[in-house]
Amino acid sequence: xxxxxxxxxxxxxxxxxxxxxxxxxxxxxxxxxxxxxxxxxxxxxxxxxxxxxxxxxxxxxxxxxxxxxxxxxxxxxxxxxxxxxxxxxxxxxxxxxxxxxxxxxxxxxxxxxxxxxxxxxxxxxxxxxxxxxxxxxxxxxxxxxxxxxxxxxxxxxxxxxxxxxxxxxxxxxxxxxxxxxxxxxxxxxxxxxxxxxxxxxxxxxxxxxxxxxxxxxxxxxxxxxxxxxxxxxxxxxxxxxxxxxxxxxxxxxxxxxxxxxxxxxxxxxxxxxxxxxxxxxxxxxxxxxxxxxxxxxxxxxxxxxxxxxxxxxxxxxxxxxxxxxxxxxxxxxxxxxxxxxxxxxxxxxxxxxxxxxxxxxxxxxxxxxxxxxxx
Length: 375
Description:
This protein is an alpha+beta fold. The protein folds into two domains: 15-180 and 335-372, no CATH class; 194-334, Gcn5-related N-acetyltransferase (GNAT) (Aminopeptidase, 3-Layer(aba) Sandwich), CATH 3.40.630. It is built from twelve helices and eleven strands. It has helices at residues 15-27, 30-33, 69-80, 88-108, 131-144, 161-169, 194-205, 218-236, 245-253, 299-314, 325-329, 349-372, and strands at residues 40-46, 49-56, 113-116, 149-156, 173-183, 209-211, 258-263, 269-278, 281-289, 317-319, 334-343. Strand 9 (281-289), helix 10 and strand 10 form a beta-alpha-beta unit. Helix 3 packs antiparallel against helix 4, helix 5 packs across helix 6 and helix 8 crosses helix 9. The longest helix has 24 residues, at 349-372. The protein is globular. The model has no long low-confidence stretch (mean pLDDT 94). This is BioF2-like acetyltransferase domain-containing protein. InterPro entries: BioF2-like_GNAT_dom (IPR038740). Residues 203-329 form the BioF2-like acetyltransferase domain.
């Protein structure tokens, strides 16, 4: 008898929020919202569920990694080898291995895809899907898009065990993507770690002013883009989604995200965060701060505290996404491997075989490295 995997249905995908999101990307050119992305966005409904759906073509590569696996598994992966700077031989070996896999990724055709539940964030929480719903979703998308791989990103074994089991049972392959950090579902206030206490102390003594969700102006939206760019595109990598001021403003005005930040007394923003609340799950797709200010100001620590406090106050499951591993562990988060589910059973044998080999390589090499180096 098959073991039942327990999974709470924490993700709502409210149809009104889905429609607000899809309408935005149909009313305004995509590149005016996310400057390094080309895709088409529409609404997809199946079994009483609503999903944002993206259509991306192979000839649009290189494209932003949220719609382009070759960017995620080759370009972004090579960039991430900077984390192995203390292990130069391993770093060079990994760069060579990743480069050698580029033809395999191209052969897979994964860049020619239809992606369900793509909110165009690095982390897209997935609603609970049973096997019957997965089968219906797969059949509908295969019929409409017979030449495209079907992709669902952002699955992990803490939040999505039953959904992963259902996807596997219906022929989806699980491609490891990265290691993420979960500040798990809390029914009561969590025990505060030493670092969490220090973060709140900094919030209580900072000379910067807190900016609430209703306090953002046009100038703040423009500054929010600058702060996000300083952190995610300049400090980390330009391969991250380039969210524009117009995107931040429109997503906020339409109620898709909420905003919080810190500003100089009576002056400009010095830190910002955008929070995406979907049912009982919280993600933090936008974080930015003035990287020219001293680290001792604790800007990153304080905006992360905003999100943790938001999650705790509402009893939300907080997916803290990838990066800053040590920082997140010290604040009560636990690690999980994140996967992209791919269905290719309707595609040519050559593409199916390439996807199977990628799945095996990621399982044998990628996951052990992510865990060993706590990335």
